């Protein structure tokens, strides 16, 4: 009888944690998997002693190393979801054990409040897992210090503090503040003396680090690796959670006694907490979920896999106005030779920012801008963008693969082999490394590769300084040296269409025949036929390539609809958008 009762109590005490773990796993595995994708693509963990030693060059570097180790397993979304859910649940369990050890009483709601706060923060894709790992390590060490390190009259936590600073960096302040409040309010022998000792030793270590060891700024030594960039869109919320968490020894002493008539059994309180957890997880998940971010990273995932047709199909089913999403889609269209056929099937920017990205050293622009240059054959420029991003933000999987591909294209096999050797030391990209390795010192194999061989054919052999603030100039320079570069030509046509440059459109009509086109792309046909408005109703001379009858018929239908509304652009707009919203004609009138 008692054994059954104990078993039931044990199960009920674990139920809220199981509910929290399950809810977190479901969210990150099936709804927030884009968070895992971004973080996995933002860092590259190398299994080598050199990579580990680099983490020892600065206090807190090991937290970065640990965060990147965890993140590498996000390659598989369900594994990543399991890890995140496990870390969050472990945090709750350790906080609960710590409170019980401090007060002798079991705290039910307080640990889950902190866990839910971290869950919500983690729903931001820029909130790196190193933050959770850093906080978890502090509460683990504090729990061990309070429970097991009372030898030598409780001075061991004081002695390990400077060593812990080198491991945890800025996160170690959480442990220090927890320890100080414990010394101050829990009748610890020589508590105030230990507080003075902790502060003195830690400040001495920071001074020595600044002046003699690491030569970093005081701010960096105090805070690294915590910073606003690693905490996402809610740095104030994160630091608020940390500040409140540091007060755990004080908060744990607060006791709320309910009147006898309001007291409930442990089983009922467990059920209430489980229901409370489900509701708050749902609310936090809804509040943290970002549909636009999810769409963007789904497109990015397909793009990295060279599934260009699927990129376009996905955006047709899930329309987006995100400029970076559309930028990747336009590259995908160009790779499939469809940019000037489907340009207006998707939202575009009149200034061309959905076609080209101007150079920036922050955000996603630096990570993605080089792919445009890779597509049009400016391989050196693609290499530069990837290399600069690596210098600014460290190794990432796709940057490293881009560096390998550009070196292979140019035949720089020795350099490529060094990059490949790095890629081979990763957990989930060794197959890519082996595929690249087979191409080393084999021009025929590179030429036969569907991607690299095609890029080697269109690569620029004439160097010039790229103008990243005005990429269309680069297009003109490419075509001046390689007039048969179809991909660069597609971008030139697309830019002329976006800018409604009729003179430019008329001037490049003969170039289609030179490039081997048998028919004009659909959007260009629409532009060419609209030139008749400025030429007394006559079509321009299009050479041997003729305007299709279907386009001429649609032009007649467009004019008919327009005339039905008294040639009033405002009243005709809804009907024209419904029937011709993906045409150059609609773009000219309404964009």
Please give the alpha-carbon distance between the first and last residues.
Answer: 78 Å
Fraction of residues in β-strands: under 5%
Which term fits the overall shape?
Answer: elongated
Q: Total number of β-strand segments?
A: 0
Question: Unreliable segments (pLDDT under 50, ≥5 consecutive)?
Answer: 1-8
Largest sheet: none
Give the proportion of residues in helices.
55-70%
Our count of domains comes out at 4
- Mean pLDDT, as a whole number? 89
C-alpha-based Rg, rounded: 31 Å
Structural class: mainly alpha
Q: What is the overall number of helices?
A: 34
Highlighted features:
591 residues, mainly alpha
Task: Describe the protein's architecture and organization.
The chain is mostly helical. It folds into four domains: 2-256 and 264-288, no CATH class; 291-367 and 461-499, no CATH class; 379-459; 500-590, no CATH class. Helices cover 70% and strands 0% of the residues. The protein contains 34 helices and no strands. The protein has helices at 2-30, 33-41, 49-54, 61-72, 77-103, 109-122, 129-148, 151-154, 156-168, 172-185, 191-213, 218-223, 235-246, 248-251, 266-288, 291-304, 308-317, 323-335, 339-342, 363-376, 379-393, 397-409, 413-423, 430-437, 443-448, 452-458, 471-481, 486-498, 502-507, 509-514, 522-530, 549-564, 569-580, 584-590. Helix 5 (77-103) runs antiparallel to helix 6 (109-122). The termini are far apart.
List the helices and strands and how they pair.
Elements: H1 2-30, H2 33-41, H3 49-54, H4 61-72, H5 77-103, H6 109-122, H7 129-148, H8 151-154, H9 156-168, H10 172-185, H11 191-213, H12 218-223, H13 235-246, H14 248-251, H15 266-288, H16 291-304, H17 308-317, H18 323-335, H19 339-342, H20 363-376, H21 379-393, H22 397-409, H23 413-423, H24 430-437, H25 443-448, H26 452-458, H27 471-481, H28 486-498, H29 502-507, H30 509-514, H31 522-530, H32 549-564, H33 569-580, H34 584-590
Helix pairs in contact: 1-2, 1-5, 1-15, 2-16, 4-7, 5-6, 5-7, 6-13, 6-15, 7-10, 9-10, 9-11, 10-11, 10-13, 16-17, 16-18, 17-18, 18-20, 20-21, 21-22, 22-23, 22-26, 23-24, 27-28, 32-33, 33-34
């Amino acid at each position: 009888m008692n054994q059954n009762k104990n078993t039931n109590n044990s199960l009920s005490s674990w139920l809220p944690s199981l509910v929290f773990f399950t809810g977190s796993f479901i969210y990150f595995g099936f709804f927030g998997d884009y968070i895992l994708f971004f973080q996995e693509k933002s860092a590259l963990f190398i299994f080598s002693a050199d990579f580990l030693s680099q983490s020892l060059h600065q206090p807190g570097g090991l937290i970065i190393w640990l965060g990147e180790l965890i993140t590498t397993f996000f390659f598989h979304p369900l594994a990543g979801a399991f890890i995140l859910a496990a870390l969050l649940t472990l945090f709750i369990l350790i906080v609960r054990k710590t409170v019980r050890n401090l007060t002798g009483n079991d705290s039910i709601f307080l640990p889950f409040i902190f866990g839910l706060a971290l869950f919500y923060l983690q729903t931001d894709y820029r909130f790196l897992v190193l933050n959770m790992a850093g906080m978890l390590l502090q509460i683990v060490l504090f729990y061990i210090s309070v429970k097991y390190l009372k030898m030598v009259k409780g001075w061991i936590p004081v002695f390990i503090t400077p060593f812990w600073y080198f491991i945890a960096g800025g996160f170690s302040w959480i442990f220090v503040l927890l320890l100080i409040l414990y010394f101050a309010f829990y009748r610890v022998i020589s508590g105030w003396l230990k507080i003075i000792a902790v502060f003195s030793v830690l400040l001495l270590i920071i001074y020595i680090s600044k002046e003699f060891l690491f030569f970093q700024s005081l701010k960096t030594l105090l805070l690294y690796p915590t910073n606003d960039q690693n905490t996402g869109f809610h740095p104030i919320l994160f630091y608020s959670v940390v500040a409140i968490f540091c007060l755990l020894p004080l908060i744990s002493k607060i006791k709320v006694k309910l009147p006898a008539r309001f007291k409930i059994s442990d089983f009922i309180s467990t059920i209430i907490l489980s229901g409370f957890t489900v509701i708050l997880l749902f609310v936090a998940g809804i509040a943290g979920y970002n549909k636009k971010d999810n769409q963007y990273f789904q497109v990015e995932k397909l793009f990295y896999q060279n599934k260009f047709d699927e990129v376009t199909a996905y955006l047709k089913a899930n329309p987006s106005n995100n400029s970076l999403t559309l930028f990747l889609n336009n590259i995908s269209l160009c790779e499939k030779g469809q940019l000037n056929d489907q340009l207006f099937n998707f939202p575009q920017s009149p200034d061309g920012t959905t076609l080209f990205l101007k150079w920036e050293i922050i955000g996603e622009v630096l990570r993605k801008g080089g792919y445009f240059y890779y597509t049009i054959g400016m391989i050196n420029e693609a290499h530069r963008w990837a290399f600069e991003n690596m210098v600014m933000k460290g190794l990432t999987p796709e940057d490293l693969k881009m560096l390998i591909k550009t070196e292979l294209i140019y035949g720089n096999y020795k350099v490529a082999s060094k990059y490949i050797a790095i890629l081979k030391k990763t957990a989930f990209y060794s197959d890519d490394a082996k595929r690249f390795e087979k191409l080393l010192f084999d021009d025929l194999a590179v030429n036969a590769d569907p991607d690299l061989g095609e890029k080697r054919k269109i690569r620029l052999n004439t160097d010039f300084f790229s103008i990243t603030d005005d990429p269309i100039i680069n297009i003109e320079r490419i075509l001046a040296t390689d007039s048969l570069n179809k991909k660069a030509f597609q971008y030139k046509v697309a830019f002329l269409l976006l800018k409604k440059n009729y003179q430019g459109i008329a001037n490049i009509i003969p170039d289609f025949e030179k490039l081997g086109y048998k028919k004009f792309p659909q959007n260009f046909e629409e532009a060419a036929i609209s030139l008749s408005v400025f030429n007394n109703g006559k079509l321009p001379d299009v050479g041997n390539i003729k305007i299709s009858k279907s386009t001429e018929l649609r032009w007649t239908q467009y004019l008919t609809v327009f005339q039905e509304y008294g040639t009033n652009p405002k009243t005709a707009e809804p009907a024209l958008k419904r029937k011709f919203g993906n045409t150059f004609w609609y773009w000219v009138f309404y964009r």
